[in-house]
């Protein structure tokens, strides 16, 4: 109760990521194609969220440099999706 959520962008990024994966995730869970394989896919968002939480100061902290190639790759990946 001693700390509040800071407006550092991490909540917005988290909500945006959840919005992007919600429909495909629900479709995968509802498909029930009868496969005999157990999937660990539902655990990926939980583990990723935990890692983001543990490293949020490093991830969302002040960047040491800007790499246009990385920004371009991220933009292209979102555009393709």
Q: Can you walk me through this structure?
A:
There is one protein chain. The protein has one domain. The radius of gyration is 16 Å and the shape is globular. It is an all-alpha fold and 81 residues long. The mean pLDDT is 77. Helix content is 64%, strand content 0%. The longest helix is centred in the first third of the chain and has 22 residues, at 10-31.
Strand-and-helix sequence, N→C? HHHH
**Quantity of strands, as a count:** 0
Estimate percent helicity.
55-70%
**Number of structurally distinct domains:** 1
- Count of separate DSSP helical elements: 4
Unreliably modeled segments? none
Estimate the global geometry from the Cα principal axes.
globular
- Helix-strand makeup class: mainly alpha
Straight-line N-to-C gap? 38 Å
Rg for CA atoms: 16 Å
**Percent of residues in β-strands:** under 5%
Largest sheet: none
Query: What's the mean pLDDT score?
Result: 77
